[in-house]
Amino acid sequence: MKKIEQAVILKNQCYIDNIYDMVLYAPEIANVAKAGQFVNVYTGKAEMILPRPISISEIDKKEGTLRLLYQVIGKGTEHICKLQKGSSIKILGALGNGFFVNEKYRNHILIGGGIGVPPMLELAKTLQGNIHIFIGAKSKPILVEEFQKIGANISIATDDGSQGICGTVLDAIEIEEPTADMIYACGPKVMLKAVSEWAEKKQMQIQVSMEERMACGIGACVGCAIKINKKGTHDWENLKVCKDGPVFWGNEVVWND
């Protein structure tokens, strides 16, 4: 159930380059949120009426907090990154469907590219069993220490080869040839397409969290619609990433659109 909450900022500082790390006290939303969901963050500025959708990186239900890692890429996030500790900000959440977790599964592959890595952290904390995460970045992979703390096996791929292998996460996956009961991925569409095709070839299930530009974030404007194959047919339909997703099965997304 989504709620509007006036959240208190407990932390809001630069994590690395143009990525910021925010912790919010929002007990009502934290109590219902799950891995793979997101919140709409409102700037409070009249000239920036549309909210900014930001994925949830960590949830602490006991403390009533949400951790958000976000990239500063426009006026909205430029304003948000300047907000000080102790101030408040309106948020709406938790939004989206989140990842499907089967408690019987014990072997998991997580794949995160760029700012698609943060949603993987709460998921990794939720899953039981063996976790192997593949992290892709241009040069500076994020949240590596956090994944180490929870005992995940970590493989890194960077565009410049400064850490891990030089190449894409798919390159790293093809080198290591991991197997799993379930694959979960979040990142750029080109990456999600590539890893979904790999998973299908290997006959493994994959869930993908789609990154699309959103306006309303609640399914009213149809601005984030993508093509999804209708089950049992050769036809497709438009579904909304914000409401029907952001998580879909990799084999149901129409990638060649």
Describe the structure.
This protein is an alpha/beta fold and 257 residues long. The protein has two domains: 93 residues, Elongation Factor Tu (Ef-tu), domain 3 (Beta Barrel), CATH 2.40.30; 146 residues, Nucleotide-binding domain of ferredoxin-NADP reductase (FNR) module (Rossmann fold, 3-Layer(aba) Sandwich). 19% of the residues lie in helices and 36% in strands. The protein has six helices and 16 strands. The strands form three sheets. The protein has a seven-stranded antiparallel beta sheet. The chain has a seven-stranded mixed beta sheet with strand order 11-10-9-8-12-13-16, with helices on both faces. A two-stranded antiparallel ribbon has the order 14-15. Strand 12, helix 6 and strand 13 form a beta-alpha-beta unit. It starts with a strand and ends in an 8-residue tail after the last strand.
Shape call: globular
Q: pLDDT under 50 segments (min length 5)?
A: none
Distance between the termini: 32 Å
Relative helix content? 10-25%
- Biggest β-sheet: count, sense, barrel? 7 strands, antiparallel
Read across the widest sheet, the strand sequence of neighbours is: 4-3-7-1-2-6-5
Based on CA atoms alone, the radius of gyration comes out at: 18 Å
CATH topology of the largest domain: Rossmann fold
Number of strands: 16
Q: Quickly give the CATH architecture of the largest domain.
A: 3-Layer(aba) Sandwich
Number of helices: 6
Instruction: Tell me the count of domains.
Output: 2
